[in-house]
Amino acid sequence: MRAYVRLVLAVFGVGDLILAGWMTFFPANFYALPTLDWTPPYSEHLMQDVGGEKLGLGLVLTMAAVTFDLLLTRVALLAYTAYALTHLVFHLGHLHPHERGLSIELVVVFSLSVLLPLTALIATRSKAFTTSGQQLGA
Fold it and tell me: What is the pTM of this model?
């Protein structure tokens, strides 16, 4: 389970860092994704602000994967789960009736973005993660 938790932290951390760079430095290009224009209008300011948020969250997730500190790991996973859950709820209420396939893909991907960090967070509560210090170890 430790490997699973670390993998979730690393994948979501690096993923957020990549998205952050894209949103921050190429906001109009990011906004050209097929589903973002379902809720116009475009705002460069908002895109860059969200990119900064993703940068911060990506750094926290990545540092949790590197240090594997128990508290940092739990906080990072909880923070990402909170973000992912609100993101999923928003998209569930804004599916496009003429884009059924893309809408289904969004629901699946965004559901996994809630379930994977949540299961990793739950895994940190198991006895296997109870160590003498605050390090989860390798």
Answer: 0.89
